[in-house]
Amino acid sequence: MNKFIIKSDGGARGNPGSGAYGFVIKPEENSKFKFVIFNPSRLKGDAVADQIQNSNVQIKDNIVYGSGYLGVTTNNQAEYHGILNALKYLLLHVTCYMLHDFQIECFLDSQLIVEQMNGRYKIKNEGLKPLYWEIRGLIMDLGGKVTFAHIPRAQNAEADKLVNEAIDNSINIS
């Protein structure tokens, strides 16, 4: 079985303010699975591929590092975008490689998002509901083999760094 570990984060300076997401995807140690950068022209017209092309994605030592600037958003919306874009990226890979036997473990430092995804907290904010349902749809597309767990912020430093870099880079360009 292939197991993938996702650590994702999102943030906004100002809440709402300039926001971004970041994610890190690692295959389980000793996995033979290899990530590749997709050629955008080969995937043109694929809805999921079209959406993640707005992400800055790099692969180093078979670990995927992704981030994207969102513009003005809230912290919670940015957190949802982190996990959403990580799952979209992973869906492309498991679909292209026709993987059937896999498991995905998602780790976030937002306890609110984890509890909402696990069905323990209601989603009261109308701006979060579409993101929640889009993630639920991706989970169905992935065969429901996705779990969510909370981790301390210190254990999510890589994804947090990607968020801050995406915001800083967008501010420097503006």
- Multimeric state: single chain
Instruction: Count the beta strands.
Output: 6
N-to-C series of helices and strands: EEHEEHEHHEH
Query: What structural class do the secondary elements suggest?
Result: alpha/beta
Question: Proportion of β residues?
Answer: 25-35%
The largest sheet is:
6 strands, mixed
In the residues, how many domains can be counted?
1
As laid out across the biggest beta sheet, the strand order is 3-4-2-1-5-6
What is the distance, rounded to the nearest whole angstrom, between the alpha carbons of the first and last residues? 45 Å
At the first level of CATH, the class is Alpha Beta
Work out the helix count.
Answer: 5
Which residue ranges are poorly predicted, with pLDDT under 50 across at least 5 consecutive positions? none
Give me the CATH fold name: Nucleotidyltransferase, domain 5
Average residue-wise pLDDT: 90
CATH superfamily: Ribonuclease H-like superfamily/Ribonuclease H
Q: Name the CATH architecture.
A: 2-Layer Sandwich
Q: Compute the gyration radius: what is it?
A: 15 Å
Q: What is the overall silhouette?
A: globular
Helix content: 25-40%
In words, what does this structure look like?
Helices cover 37% and strands 29% of the residues. With 174 residues, it is α/β, with parallel strands linked by helices. The chain has a single domain, classed as Nucleotidyltransferase, domain 5 (2-Layer Sandwich), CATH 3.30.420.10. The chain has a six-stranded mixed sheet with strand order 3-4-2-1-5-6. A hairpin with a 2-residue loop joins β3 and β4. The protein is globular and about 40 Å long.
